[in-house]
Amino acid sequence: MANNTSTGISIENEFLDARFAEIREKLLDLSRRNPLINFKHSKSGTRYIRVVDEVPEFLLKRFYEGSMEFTPLPDIEAEPSDEKSDHFQLSLKAMKSPEIDSDYIRALNNEALERQDSIQYQEELIQAERSLRDELRNEMGMPALQSAANLNLRTHAKIHGFNPSYELSNEIGADHHEDDLMQCLLTPGRVTQTEPEHVLVWTG
């Protein structure tokens, strides 16, 4: 009688093990139907957002502890981060010297226009300074600023101090590596149009 009971328990355990194995296989689909395995990147894809310039370990920690939001690249009109350096600012100050004959100094000293149309005066002064900054960027070997009509996202990211590579490092090297925002290689308008099903984090 005891043998029959043991045999019955053994058969039941084997049945349960087989059922659990079947369920596990369904939960973990290793076929090409699983989009996390059979995944193709697309520049126009809206089902996922790829993260750049973040630390994977910190992202995982924040996912467990709370919530995070995607953050886009700065607006195309935002002041470039690489122009805020001391070296650039000192060089720009030198180029603005009244002793140098330049379009900027001529625009600055256009008192007649300032009296006649102060708005146009400010516009021309801003444009002259932008031309001066672009000239300095070229002299210092810095990448040309991007425009909305001809935007290179990787160059735009570098100008504002972000590493555009999708291969992430585990070294914390910037303040934004420890905030609650996930940096992505998208413009502000593109982020609002994207409703991702997946967040892609690739480590090299």
Could you describe the 3D structure shown?
There is one protein chain. The protein has 8 helices and 6 strands. The protein folds into 3 domains: 1-38; 40-78 and 148-204, no CATH class; 81-139, no CATH class. The chain is elongated, with a radius of gyration of 29 Å. The chain has 204 residues and is mainly alpha-helical. A two-stranded parallel sheet has the order 1-5. It has a two-stranded parallel sheet with strand order 2-4. The chain has a two-stranded parallel ribbon with strand order 3-6. The longest helix has 26 residues, at 2-27.
Topology (elements, then pairings):
Elements: H1 2-27, E1 48-50, H2 56-65, E2 69-71, H3 86-95, H4 103-108, H5 111-116, H6 118-139, H7 153-159, E3 167-168, E4 181-183, H8 188-193, E5 198-200, E6 202-203
Parallel strand pairs: 1-5, 2-4, 3-6
Properties at a glance:
46% helix; 3 domains; single chain; two-stranded parallel sheet
